[in-house]
Specification:
It is a single chain. It contains 17 helices and no strands. The longest helix is centred in the first third of the chain and has 17 residues. Helix 11 packs antiparallel against helix 12 and helix 13 packs antiparallel against helix 14. Helix content is 79%, strand content 0%. The protein is an all-alpha fold. The chain starts with a helix and ends with a helix. It is elongated.
């Protein structure tokens, strides 16, 4: 005959399986069965809190995490995940206090430093965030997300050479993270290594092909590399995905102008002016194209 503890574990395992499949309602029902058997079980309370966090029911998540900490005050995950919830609630100072409690309990757990760094970044404490990413990397040298975020923060400080070195490690350890390739492309663009920047953007776009902003950035890299035909095609892809600003029409038209395709360039300028009739850049380019076609 199964003991009460066996049944609790069975419900917890069933809840985890549902959680992995993102069946959060079913997961909660399994965890609640476990909680009914053991109302003071901190592990069960933690799991219920985590499901509520996934559902962005932050107040409920905090209540269950607090319940877990009442019965297991040294549960590092409950301190850490409470901090993440407070971050999502934009209670950054409180989140930092919870992260520091988790770090005190387990100073060698790398991912607490990573999450703390995200909160520090949101607070504008860029150098402190970088120090936390460095601590994460020292504990987990192959954690690609830490390199990515550190590189992005170095970009914010204008430290492009350090950012490039960091982001090269990011794309090595996290080859499926488009954001890392985009960040490296931005860094190389700032360093005027335009052709290299374009290659990194294209790698990222291979993973995230519906990102109009990064298609536009890739077009800028190609344009600066004087690859005007590629730039025009790349800008056109951005325009296909999102036509919400006049500058993308300008970019396509200007790339065509550099290829001396004045008639095609004029068509894009006119399309842009139909949507943004008072845009000064488009009007200026239109006048320039009129002169070139005389």
């Amino acid at each position: 005959m199964k003991s009460k503890l066996d049944n609790v574990q069975r419900y917890v395992q069933a809840g985890l399986r549902h959680w992995e499949q993102q069946n959060y309602g079913d997961a909660l029902r399994q965890y609640e069965k476990a909680l009914k058997l053991e109302p003071n079980n901190p592990e069960v309370l933690f799991h219920i809190g985590f499901v509520h966090e996934e559902l962005r029911m932050f107040e409920e998540a905090i209540a269950y995490y607090s319940g877990a900490l009442k019965f297991a005050p040294t549960m590092v995950r409950a301190w850490e995940y409470s901090a993440v919830v407070y971050h999502n609630l934009r209670q950054y100072e409180r989140a930092i206090r919870y992260y520091e409690k988790a770090i005190k309990l387990d100073p060698d757990y790398p991912y607490v430093y990573y999450n703390k760094a995200i909160t520090l970044g949101a607070m504008g404490r860029i150098k402190d965030a970088i120090a936390c990413y460095d601590k994460t990397i020292s504990l987990d040298p192959k954690y690609g997300l830490a390199y990515t975020n550190k590189g992005i923060k170095l970009n914010c400080l204008g430290e492009y050479q350090r950012a490039a070195e960091t982001l090269k490690l990011a794309v090595r350890f996290d080859k499926q993270n488009a954001r890392a390739f985009f960040a490296l492309g931005k860094t190389l663009l700032a360093l005027r290594r335009h052709s290299q920047a374009f290659r990194q953007y294209r790698k990222g776009l291979g993973m995230d092909p519906n990102n109009p902003r990064e298609w536009k950035n890739a077009g800028e890299a190609a344009f600066r590399a004087k690859q005007y035909e590629i730039a025009a095609a790349t800008y056109e892809r951005s325009l296909t995905l999102c036509s919400g600003s006049p500058d993308i029409y300008y970019c396509v038209a200007d790339s065509l102008r550099h290829q001396k395709k004045y008639s095609e360039a004029t068509k894009y300028v006119k399309k842009g002016l139909r949507r943004f009739p008072s845009d000064e850049n488009l009007l200026t380019l239109w006048q320039s194209l009129k002169l070139l076609q005389k």
